[in-house]
Each structure stands twice: as structure tokens, then as C-alpha cells.
From TrEMBL:
GO biological process: intracellular protein transport; retrograde transport, endosome to Golgi
Biological role: Plays a role in vesicular protein sorting.
Entry keyword Protein biosynthesis: no
TM spans (from-to): none
Name of protein: Vacuolar protein sorting-associated protein 35
Domain of life per record: Eukaryota
Record keywords, A-Z: Cytoplasm, Endosome, Golgi apparatus, Membrane, Protein transport, Transport
A GO cellular-component term linked to this record: endosome membrane
Primary location recorded for the protein, binned into one broad class: cytoplasm
Topology in the lipid bilayer: Peripheral membrane protein
InterPro entries (alphabetical): ARM-type_fold, Vps35, Vps35_C
Signal sequence extent: none
Native source organism of the sequence: Cephalotus follicularis (Albany pitcher plant)
Pfam families: Vps35 (PF03635)
Length: 788
């Protein structure tokens, strides 16, 4: 059915074009022969083809353009009076005798154009006559194209200021009146084309009608080009007349398009000075009009105008542009009760963008926009529209991007309220945006209040929101989120130790609600922030007084309380590391009881929580290394801790691990810088390591039939050499010589597994000894008795 209609329409169009070409041919012959009567006859017959009602607007346009091209040639003929021998005024009367009104008016407009150019009759009189007579055609499509032709041939002949057709001071008024009257009639015709049929047909017809919108809009463009239309005339006459027509037409397509035309074609300064009038029409538009786009384009134009020069900013303040726009948006949302959340938020996004560009220093305006958005969203059920959610994210991101300082956003009281309307997933996305902004701009958050607000904003990352379970989170995303929170904690800083302690306490209050899975990511950053504060106080050589005195002891108490919580989560290795870090900090502050307590907690965790053999080895090396660096302990406490460390070393599961841990403990008894030099206990550790290495060889020999590589023996040899050079009297050259011979015999044994790495290690050690012998001096003498 549809295909047949299209084919029929194509046939009618082809027939119409053929008729136009046929009559145009005879019209051209008449023109060439300077035969006015025949030219008028065939031109009228040609124009009669435009009387058809069978074509769609798109097809009718094709037909119209064919006729329009021919009328250009006819106009050239009318201009040359010597060819047709009739005066312009007589010709103006003559063409009115055409039989049908449509051809008659096309010819009348064509002659009228020539008449105005001849200046025999005032332009205003001809234009007034033409615009009135065009009322004779009331068919929507035919009338619209006829008036479009009138607008086309008259646009360069308006009696404007500076125009050759200017006559007196009132001529501009006449020109404006002509364009406005033609615009009004064209808009009425266009609105009358509104389709009334069934759904699909109606959509197609509406699309075709939309394609004709530029015919109406050209009138407004012509108005904007009239030099005589100054601000006063635009404000008092032009804009009210246009808006009256826009509002009264009650057609959503026409209202949207014409409002857009007004915004685009007239100068920005005119919009600014007539803002109240223009905005007053918005609530009166049809509910189906996309008013958010119209207002967004208006605010964008005004924003660009403000950005063009700082000199225009006072104009915005003078006319109270923000208040008027804000009130207009409120009235539009109130008037359009069915406006979805997406539309309302979009309007607030546009207003916020305008505010940030025109009044960046007015944070109260920014907060006011956010508050208005909160008020609107509060009246809505839970937001499930993804478009609305994206607009909220845009709204929240705008202040961050503008100020490049999240601290500024933290001062906006309504900012967290807007975030509360996001779903859990988007809330986390927005929280990540906030953290990334802080990191990117290197922003320091320096007050407790700011920290409170900040962690309230990112609460989606630091704890489970209602309806979100931890197991729903992707592991990689979860790690990225928690690492971001950890980095954020390092951006919280204040030079005042008392305030910094408050900040750290505030952070702990927030992150402790995050559950055990999050604490292993966030607590280390908190601990190191506190340790940084300890070192800051230490560098100031004294406690800092304040409302809450920040002393190293108070901070260590805070650390101990915090680490007790971490100890309860399944991260004992992490807790041990943190206890040892705190112990070293207490050592630097010369707080022996505190350092001892941290070591005690580390040992308790090792005993009770660390079960994996590899984790035990790693933890024990950390304990030994930290203990070796401590200088605050007295003899009794140090002996207790070193005895524990050596005892744990001998209890490791694997013999090689036992051996290495035991010879590492030897360093606990020989610390040059602290004056600890217990050579006997060093030798005891090394001998014990040697026995364990020998036992490991024997076990391997029994279990596998071969004793394995001599790597452990070579490692022990290197420890002997180290303490030998440190002048440990218990380590003699003969001891080293015996160990070298032992290793050599082991390597030559048939039961020993050959290992290139072990062989290279031993060879390298021997070369070192040889190097020291040839070096000479005191060290050379020490090595002289050793034979390699």
C-alpha cells in the first residue's frame, strides 16, 4: 500500500515537472520574441502546476524549485521595459488578471520585486500590499511556499537603515512589520500541517513537516539582519511579537524550533538584556517541548558571551542573570509535572555549567544549583534511569573539573546530598573520580571537617553500602578501589601536629567500618601517616601543645589500638610488618617499653597466626632484621627477644630454612654501631647452622641416595669470612681453613649432587680470599695463613 502511494506520488511529480518544462519552453520562446502576453500566458500555466494537492512537502519542494528557477528568468524580462513596452505600474496591474489566484500571486510577487527596484513606488507600500494579498492562499503547503517565495525576493529590498530603499525614520518599522506579519502567517500555515492520521503515517508526515521548518525560520534570520532593529526595538516590539506567536501556536515542534531560532539568530547582548521576557515564555510552552535543550543552548550562548570578554561580566550581574535563569528553570520543572528526572537534572547541569563559567567565584551559586537539584530529586522515587544517573555524575564532576581542587567541592553543603541519589555502583565510580582528581592536582586535604566530608563522599569505597555484598565485587576492581583509598590517605596532611592527629583519628573512624577485607589495604597507609607524624614531632624536639596534645606516646597508643584491629583480620603477615615498623619508630624516639610491646605483639602473631612455612621464614627474617637495627633495648629485653628469635629459627620446618635463619641470628650478637660484640654467641650460631646444614645433607643422603649441593656450607663460609673481617676473636683463620677443606671434600664426594651454581659460588668465595691475601696490609696478613 505504502509502495503504491510512493509510486503514484513519483508519477504525479514527474507529470508536474514535465508540464512545467513544457510551458517554460513556450515561455522562453515568448521572452525571446519580447511577447509579453504570451510570456504571461505560459508562465501562468506553468505556475498552475503548483496548485497540486497530491504531493508531499518534500516532492512539492522539488516542483517548486523548478518553477522558481524559471521565475528568475521572467523577472529579468520584466526589468527591461524596452523589451515589453509596458510600465512597471501597468505591469503590476496587468498580472493581477491571471485566472487562478496562486499563479497570480507568484507573478504579482515577481513584478512587485521589480517595482521596488524601480523605486517608482515606496517599498513599504508594495511589501504591505503583497503580504496582505498572499492571505488569499490558505492551503498549508501552497501558502507556505508562496510566502517563502515572497520572503526570498524581498529580503534584499527591505527599507532598512542604510538601504537604498530607505525613505524616512519610520521605514525600519515598516520593514520589521512586513517580516513579522509574513512570519506569523507562515507559522500559522506550518502549524496547520500538523498530521492527524494513525501512528506510523503520522510520524512520517511529522517528519516531512519538520523538513519545512527552515522556510519559517528564515524570517527570523532576516529580522536579525535588519540594521535598524536595535536593542530597544527588539525588546519592546520584535521579541514580544515573536514570543506571542510561539506561545499561541501550541505546537510542540514549532515551539521548540522557533525558540531555538530566537536563541541562535539574535545577538547575545540582546538575549542578556531581554532574559526575563525570553525566559517568561518557557513555562508556557507545551509539556512535550524539549525545553531542557532550548534552555541549555541559551545558557551555552550566554556562557560563551561572558567568556569572550571580562568587560561584559558586570552586565550579567546587573541583570541578575543567574537568579532569572534559576527561577525560570524552577518554574519550567514545576509547570511540566511529568518531566522525567533526566530532564530536570539536565537543566541543572546546564545552569551549573553556566554558573561555573560566568561566576566561578560564587560558590554560593554553585551550592544553590546543587540544592535545587536535591529538592527536585527528593520528590522522585529511586532513580533507575541510566541517563539520569549519568547526568548526576556530570553535575558532580563539573565543580571538580572547574576548580581543580576537590577541597573546594568539600565546602559545598549540598554536594554529598546529590551523591546520595546515585546507585551503589555509580556512587563508587564518582568516588573514584573524586580521588583521581585529588591525586591529579596534588590537592592536600588539611582539616578534620574536610576529611569528614571527603570520606562521606567516598563511603561507597570504604564500606559496604546497603544492598551491596562484598562477594559481588570484581577482585581486580576491588583492589584498584582500595589502593586508591590508600593513596588518598597520604594526601591528608596538616603542618600542625595536633590537627594532624585529629585527621588521622577521623580517618580511622571511617575506615574501621570497612570490614576485614578492606583493612589490609587501608590501614597500612594510616599507620605510615601516623609514623610520619611521629618523625615530624621528633624533628621538632618536643611535644606540641594544642587542644589535644600530640605526643609520640599518644600516637603510639593510637597505633597500638589500630593494629589490634588489624591483628584480628586474616592478615597476620601484614600486621607483623606494621608492628615492626612501629617498633623501629619507637626505637628512634627512645621509648623502650613501647618498642618492646610492639615486638611482643609481633612474636605473638608469629606464634599463633602464621602457619605457612614460607610465611614463617619471611616473617622471621623481618623480625631478625628489625631487631638487629634496634638500639633502645637494655640487656635483659634484648636477650629475651634475641633468644626468642633464635629459638624460632631452629624450629622452622625445613632444614635449609633453619640453617639460614640461625646464621642470620648471628648478626644479632655483633652490631658495630651499637657496641654489641658477643663473639662467642656469634660462633655458637654459626656452629649451630653448620650442624643443621650437615644434618640436612645426611637427611638428603638417606632419603634420595645423594647428599645434595653444598650451597648451605658455602653460605656459612661467607658468614665466617664476614665476622672474621669484623675481627671477631672467636673466628680464626684455622676455622675458615677447616670449613674450606670440608666443602672441598664434600664437593669431591661421589654422593654429592653437582650444582653449577654452588660450584660458582664457592669458586667466587675462594677468589675473594685470594684477592684479600694479595691485597696486603693488615687484612692481607689475616688471610695469609689460609690456603686455597
Amino acid at each position: 500500500m505504502k509502495l503504491e502511494a510512493v509510486e503514484d506520488e513519483d508519477k504525479w511529480l514527474a507529470a508536474g515537472i514535465a508540464a512545467i518544462q513544457h510551458n517554460a519552453f513556450y515561455m522562453h520562446r515568448a521572452l525571446d520574441a519580447d511577447n509579453l502576453r504570451e510570456a504571461l500566458k505560459y508562465s501562468a500555466q506553468m505556475l498552475s502546476e503548483l496548485r497540486t494537492s497530491k504531493l508531499s512537502p518534500h516532492k512539492y519542494y522539488d516542483l517548486y524549485m523548478r518553477a522558481f528557477d524559471e521565475l528568475r528568468k521572467l523577472e529579468m524580462f520584466f526589468k527591461d521595459e524596452s523589451r515589453h513596452g509596458v510600465s512597471i505600474l501597468d505591469l503590476y496591474q496587468l498580472v493581477q488578471h491571471a485566472g487562478n489566484i496562486l499563479p497570480r500571486l507568484y507573478l504579482l510577487c515577481t513584478v512587485g520585486s521589480v517595482c521596488i527596484k524601480s523605486k517608482e513606488v515606496p517599498a513599504k507600500d508594495v511589501l504591505k500590499d503583497l503580504v496582505e494579498m498572499c492571505r488569499g492562499v490558505q492551503h498549508p503547503i501552497r501558502g507556505l511556499f508562496l510566502r517563502s517565495y515572497l520572503a526570498q525576493i524581498s529580503r534584499d529590498k527591505l527599507p532598512d537603515i542604510g538601504s537604498e530603499y530607505e525613505e524616512d525614520a519610520e521605514t525600519v518599522v515598516d520593514a520589521v512589520e512586513f517580516v513579522l506579519q509574513n512570519f506569523t502567517e507562515m507559522n500559522k500555515l506550518w502549524v496547520r500541517m500538523r498530521p492527524q492520521g494513525p501512528g506510523r503515517v503520522r510520524e512520517e508526515q511529522e517528519k516531512e513537516r519538520s523538513e519545512l521548518r527552515d522556510l519559517v525560520g528564515k524570517n527570523l534570520h532576516v529580522l536579525s539582519q535588519i540594521e535598524g532593529v536595535d536593542l530597544e526595538m527588539y525588546k519592546d516590539s520584535v521579541l514580544p511579537r515573536i514570543l506571542e506567536q510561539v506561545v499561541n501556536c501550541r505546537d510542540d515542534l514549532a515551539q521548540y524550533y522557533l525558540m531555538d531560532c530566537i536563541i541562535q539568530v539574535f545577538p547575545d547582548e540582546y538575549h542578556l538584556q531581554t532574559l526575563e521576557t525570553l525566559l517568561g515564555a518557557c513555562p508556557q510552552l507545551q509539556p512535550t517541548v524539549d525545553i531542557k535543550t532550548v534552555l541549555s543552548q541559551l545558557m551555552e550562548r550566554l556562557s560563551n558571551y561572558a567568556a569572550s570578554s571580562e568587560d561584559v561580566i558586570p552586565e550579567f550581574l546587573q541583570v541578575e542573570a543567574f537568579s532569572k535563569l534559576s527561577n525560570a528553570i524552577g518554574k519550567v520543572i514545576e509547570a511540566q509535572v511529568d518531566m522525567p528526572a533526566f530532564g530536570a537534572i539536565s537543566l541543572h547541569v546546564s545552569l551549573l555549567t553556566f554558573t561555573l563559567r560566568v561566576h566561578p567565584d560564587r560558590l554560593d551559586y554553585v551550592d544553590q544549583v546543587l540544592g535545587a537539584c536535591v529538592k527536585k530529586l527528593s520528590s522522585k522515587p529511586r532513580i533507575e534511569d541510566s541517563r539520569a544517573t549519568k547526568q548526576i555524575v556530570t553535575l558532580l564532576s563539573a565543580p571538580l573539573e572547574k576548580y581543580n581542587a576537590t577541597v573546594t567541592a568539600l565546602t559545598l553543603s549540598n554536594y554529598p546530598c546529590v551523591m546520595d541519589f546515585l546507585d551503589n555502583r555509580t556512587n563508587k565510580v564518582m568516588a573514584m573520580v573524586i580521588i583521581q582528581n585529588i591525586m591529579k592536582n596534588n590537592t592536600w586535604v588539611s582539616t578534620t571537617d574536610q576529611v569528614d566530608v571527603l570520606f562521606e563522599l567516598i563511603k561507597g569505597l570504604i564500606k559496604d553500602l546497603d544492598g551491596t555484598a562484598e562477594d559481588e565485587l570484581d577482585e581486580e576492581d576491588f583492589k584498584e578501589e582500595q589502593n586508591s583509598v590508600a593513596r588518598l590517605i597520604h594526601m591528608l596532611y596538616n603542618d600542625d601536629p595536633g590537627e594532624m592527629l585529629k585527621i588521622i583519628s577521623t580517618v580511622r573512624k571511617h575506615i574501621m567500618a570497612g570490614g576485614p577485607r578492606r583493612l589490609s589495604f587501608t590501614v597500612p597507609s594510616l599507620i605510615f601517616s601516623a609514623l610520619r607524624l611521629v618523625r615530624q614531632l621528633q624533628s621538632q624536639n618536643g611535644d606540641v601543645a594544642g587542644e589535644v596534645p600530640a605526643t609520640p606516646m599518644k600516637i603510639f597508643q593510637f597505633l597500638n589500638q589500630t593494629l589490634e584491629v588489624v591483628s584480628s583480620v586474616p592478615s597476620p603477615e601484614l600486621a607483623i610488618r606494621l608492628y615492626l615498623q612501629c617498633a623501629e619508630a619507637a626505637n628512634d624516639c627512645d621509648l623502650e617499653p613501647v618498642a618492646y610491646e610492639f615486638f611482643t605483639q609481633a612474636f605473638i602473631l608469629y606464634e599463633e597466626e602464621v602457619a605457612d612455612s614460607k610465611a614463617q621464614v619471611t616473617a622471621l627474617y623481618l623480625i631478625i632484621g628489625s631487631l638487629q637495627r634496634m638500639n633502645v633495648f637494655g640487656v635483659e629485653n634484648r636477650d629475651t627477644l634475641t633468644h626468642k628469635a633464635t629459638g624460632y629459627s631452629a624450629k622452622l620446618l625445613k632444614k635449609p630454612d633453619q640453617c639460614r635463619a640461625v646464621y642470620a641470628c648471628a648478626h644479632l650478637f655483633w652490631v658495630d654501631w651499637d657496641g654489641i660484640k658477643d663473639g662467642e654467641r656469634v660462633l655458637l650460631c654459626l656452629k649451630r647452622a653448620l650442624r643443621i646444614a650437615n644434618a640436612a645433607q645426611q637427611i638428603a643422603n638417606v632419603a634420595r641416595g645423594c647428599s645434595g649441593p653444598v650451597t648451605l656450607f658455602v653460605e656459612i663460609l661467607n658468614k665466617y669470612i664476614y665476622f672474621f673481617e669484623k675481627e671477631n676473636p672467636q673466628i680464626t683463620s684455622s676455622t675458615i681453613q677447616n670449613l674450606i677443606e670440608l666443602i672441598t671434600n664434600e664437593m669431591q664426594s661421589d654422593s654429592t649432587t653437582q650444582d653449577p651454581a654452588s660450584d660458582a659460588f664457592f669458586a667466587s668465595t675462594l677468589r675473594y680470599i685470594q684477592f684479600q691475601k694479595h691485597k696486603g696490609g693488615i687484612m692481607g696478613e689475616k688471610y695469609d695463613s689460609i690456603k686455597v
